[in-house]
Amino acid sequence: MKAAIIDDSRAMRMIIGRTLKELGFEVTEAANGREGLDCLENNPKMDLVLVDWNMPEMNGLEFVQALRGNRSLSHLPVMVVTSETEASQAERALQAGANEYVTKPFSKEELVERLSRLGFPPQ
Amino acid sequence: MTNGSLQSRDVIDIIQEVFSSMLALEISPLDAVTSATAAANERKLSASVGIAGEWNGTVTLQCGADTACRLAGAMLAMDPAPDVDEDVKDVLGELANIVAGNIKSMLPGPSSLSLPCVIDGSNYSLEILHGEELINQPLLCHGNGLIVSIVQAKPTAAARKLPGVSAA
């Protein structure tokens, strides 16, 4: 399984990546939405994308909108991982096309539980 | 709570949850700034995140360089860095980001978060001009001190709905 982590914080990419690797994912990282789209176009066999909301160059909402408008990438499941904790922001992300939404702070167990809602890892 | 009336207890609760979940550390409030927090002439880091929209202001976490290194080590599950490096600044900025995001949900909205800004140095004071300090809470985390402060910008004339004044 392959996952892309898109977050401007290297620390968050490390923390999320650690959990994903324990679940058996091969992880690719990007520091903003623009880099994330480039990364996905160069890695066509990705299975999952986790994306932050507030990032320079292209934020998470813009990334999800661009992803869903890209025929070759629109099928990818996307989880937004963000410090934006209001329900209205979660609605915006889901309406834009995100499949799941997890707010910071989160425990490893919470992240694993949200991943299981997307069917990861496969049983 | 969205009436803009933020209390120290609310902020402490948020920080305790952040530190517990992300760093597996306990943190407790102090009644006053002590020697555990950085003195004015010591090297310290300040991480600020702005909030703009229906509510305007900043959330800042400030601590000594050693404390910042320890927090980064805890968050990354590594030995603390011997000196402040990019990972240490990144961690402090991300902590400020997470705290600010959770505080924002308790304030009038909608509002947006800025990207974090991290200052590293000594003999400086961080001042948010034309703002009102709502919270200045010293905290202790396993013997390491830090301070969280929240400053609200004074509302514009349009925000105060003065007669004849509309938003820019």
Folded structure, characterized:
The complex is a heterodimer of chains A (123) and B (168). Chain A has 123 residues and is an alpha/beta fold. Chain A contains 5 helices and 5 strands, in the order βαβαβαβαβα. In chain A, strands 2-1-3-4-5 form a 5-stranded parallel β-sheet, with helices on both faces. Chain A starts with a strand and ends in a 6-residue tail after the last helix. Chain B contains 3 helices and 7 strands; from the N terminus they run αβββααββββ. Chain B is an alpha+beta fold and 168 residues long. The radius of gyration of chain B is 16 Å and the shape is elongated. The two termini of chain B are 28 Å apart. Chains A and B meet through α1 of A and α1, α2 and α3 of B.
What does this entry show, briefly?
The complex is a heterodimer of chains A (123) and B (168). Chain A is α/β, with parallel strands linked by helices and 123 residues long. In chain A, 42% of the residues lie in helices and 19% in strands.
Keywords:
heterodimer, A: 123 residues, alpha/beta, five-stranded parallel β-sheet, 5 helices, 19% strand, B: 168 residues, alpha+beta, seven-stranded antiparallel β-sheet, 28% helix, 29% strand, elongated
